[in-house]
Amino acid sequence: MPGSPASDGWPLMVITHPRPTCGRSLEQVVAECVDAGAPAIQLRDKTADSRALTTTAARLRAITKSAGATLIVNDRLDVALAIGADGVHLGPDDVTVPAARDIAPPDFIIGYSTDDPEEARRAAAAGADYLGVGAVFGTRSKPGLANEAIGPDRVRLVREASGLPCLGIGGITLQNAPAVLETGAGIAVLSTVMSAPDPGAVVRELLLIARGEGGCRR
Fold it and tell me: Could you say which DSSP state residue 74 is in?
């Protein structure tokens, strides 16, 4: 499967916001991101109803598929399966990893969120393909996490405990991305890309940093 994290993981996942601040539609922004080389997009929308989310997911699926990128749907296994997404990202309050694995196609990607090494081991044993670990530097994208920063060292511990590809998430910028990448994890970003005037340019710079070639402009 294109973009599968089964071996080394993705260097970068772009997580969407329903209303990018650059003034262009979400579909346009996602197209710019995958054209810039983003290997994975996660559709995250906590407010849309099922019909609206399914419509958006189907549009993004067409964009990512044409670019050879992976589309992951946050939380909603039903929507992910309905539109033929590549996978789903689950949290502790969602359907369990084993339940999702039981009904998903064999090559369906299942991600799981945890910052606890023991829970990470359990998720790996249950069939998760990758882990989202955060909030690394704190984040305003989720209520209550602005002042909760686990730091890059915890990302390393979770990655080593689970043996799975991991994505550090939460407050990641062009400046602090190297500290996460040095743990052997990839990075997942929301605001850094979704709030940028030129999302594609930020994606290109983050990928350069992931390859050890980039500098920080901001």
Answer: E
